[in-house]
Design brief:
By secondary structure, this protein is of the alpha/beta class.
């Protein structure tokens, strides 16, 4: 009887939210034979929120970056707060260097490509649930290569503003996220446009993406 109690105490409660039901079914088939992981699934952000509220949170949550209702960093932070700041990571089909950098900067437990083998996924789940951060080596190498491919003319603060511009945020929201006055944000946007040789914020984002700055 005591053995059973101890075994249950080590089980990891994991929620994976993905609107691709086939992916959830495949992961479920693998994890149902993994005794230390108890899997729950959701096919929408609203469904994930409902499960968190009903079950009191999870040891780890993985969110599909491209599912309906997922708004990048904003949703990541929302789910992390609902989950009592326990680990929340990202699962995605095609992680880019920008995604890796953005999620790292905003506290994601990790970024897991959907091409990850089931064995590696199981190990990644245990790793993130233990409080570590999981970013596959090839993703980190791609990130470094992209960063080294072009010497950015922008300051670190301008890059932060540019990343939020790329998310489609207006100056007021950017100022709130970075704790800057709206006038200061406008100044940074003007400087970004000048340095990139463009005339407006839309062109700045397009040029920055072409240069792999975001």
């Amino acid at each position: 009887m005591n053995t059973q109690v101890n075994q249950n105490a080590t089980n990891l409660s994991v929620l994976i939210a993905d609107d691709h039901t086939l992916i959830l079914e495949i992961i479920g088939l693998v994890l149902e034979n993994t005794p230390d992981i108890k899997l729950s699934t959701a096919i929408s952000i609203d469904g994930a929120i409902e499960q968190i509220r009903n079950k009191g949170g999870f040891d780890l949550i993985l969110l599909d970056l491209d599912m309906p209702g997922m708004h990048g960093v904003e949703t990541l932070k929302q789910i992390a707060e609902l989950n009592g700041d326990r680990p929340v990571g990202i699962i995605t089909g095609g992680p880019t260097p920008r995604v890796v950098e953005e999620m790292t900067r905003n506290g994601a437990a990790g970024v897991v490509p959907k091409t990850t083998s089931m064995k590696s996924l199981t190990n990644a789940i245990r790793f993130m649930a233990a409080g570590e951060r999981y970013f596959p080596l090839e993703l980190m190498q791609e990130q470094r290569a992209a960063q080294n491919a072009f010497v950015s003319p922008l300051s670190e603060r301008e890059v932060s503003v540019l990343n939020l511009l790329a998310d489609g945020k207006p100056n007021r929201e950017i100022g709130g996220d970075l704790n800057l006055a709206e006038a200061t944000v406008k100044m940074h946007v003007k400087s970004i446009c000048r340095k990139l040789g463009v005339t407006n914020r839309t062109q700045a984002v397009i040029t920055a993406r072409n240069l792999k700055l975001v």
